[in-house]
Specification:
This is DUF2178 domain-containing protein. This protein is mostly helical. The chain has helices at 2-19, 22-50, 57-78, 85-111.
């Protein structure tokens, strides 16, 4: 109950702004899709930079998936599920992919870059 009230108070201005015109709706949709694409590209680039799974890199991949799962669970907890759920669904996975990509980038810089 408390999280629903908090979520509505935070995201109500965004919902009102997006529903006021088609241009605002499209801007929010394209921004969230861009967020998702950037996150997915970051994950893909660092996945290929780290290389094939072996004893050392397998742990990095498992921890990155754990970060991805944690971000998805937090997104389910905080983002609204009633109104505009498709856009918030895209934003949730964009945040998750971006968090996973940042984790992979930090691990790559720490372990592989000289």
């Amino acid at each position: 109950m408390l999280t629903e009230n908090m979520t509505l108070s935070i995201f109500s201005p965004v919902m009102t702004w997006a529903e006021s015109s088609n241009a605002n709706w499209n801007m929010l949709l394209m921004g969230s899709l861009g967020f998702l694409i950037v996150g997915a590209a970051l994950v893909t680039v660092y996945y290929y930079k780290i290389g094939k799974p072996d004893e050392r890199t397998n742990q990095i991949y498992l921890k990155s998936v754990f970060v991805l799962l944690g971000a998805v669970i937090l997104g389910d907890f905080f983002l609204p599920k009633e109104e505009m759920w498709t856009i918030f669904f895209i934003i949730k996975y964009g945040i998750a992919f971006l968090a996973c990509g940042i984790y992979l980038a930090v691990q790559y810089k720490r372990d592989f870059a000289s």
